[in-house]
Write a structure and sequence with these properties.
Layout lengths: L19 H8 L4 H4 L12 H7 L7 H4 L3
C-alpha cells in the first residue's frame, strides 16, 4: 500500500431518496452530463480504493438501518 494513502469509507449507496443523477442535475445543472452516468442509488464518493487496498467493504446501508 502506498505510504500516505487516503481513503473514503462509507455506504455504497447515496443518502438520497430520489435518483442521484436527477438530483445532481436539478441542483447543479453544470454537472448534469457527468451525473447521468451514475447508478440511481450510487454513492457520491467511492470506497473502491479502500476495497482494493484494504479489503474493506460496507456492511450496512441507511436504507436497511433507518426503517421508518
Amino acid at each position: 500500500m502506498p505510504n500516505g494513502s487516503t481513503f473514503f469509507v462509507g455506504a455504497s449507496d447515496s443518502l438520497a431518496r430520489g435518483e442521484l443523477g436527477d438530483l445532481i442535475a436539478r441542483y447543479r445543472p453544470e454537472l448534469a452530463a457527468t451525473a447521468g452516468s451514475l447508478r440511481a442509488d450510487a454513492a457520491v464518493f467511492s470506497s473502491h480504493q479502500a476495497e482494493q487496498l484494504l479489503g474493506w467493504t460496507p456492511k450496512r446501508s441507511w436504507r436497511t438501518e433507518l426503517v421508518s
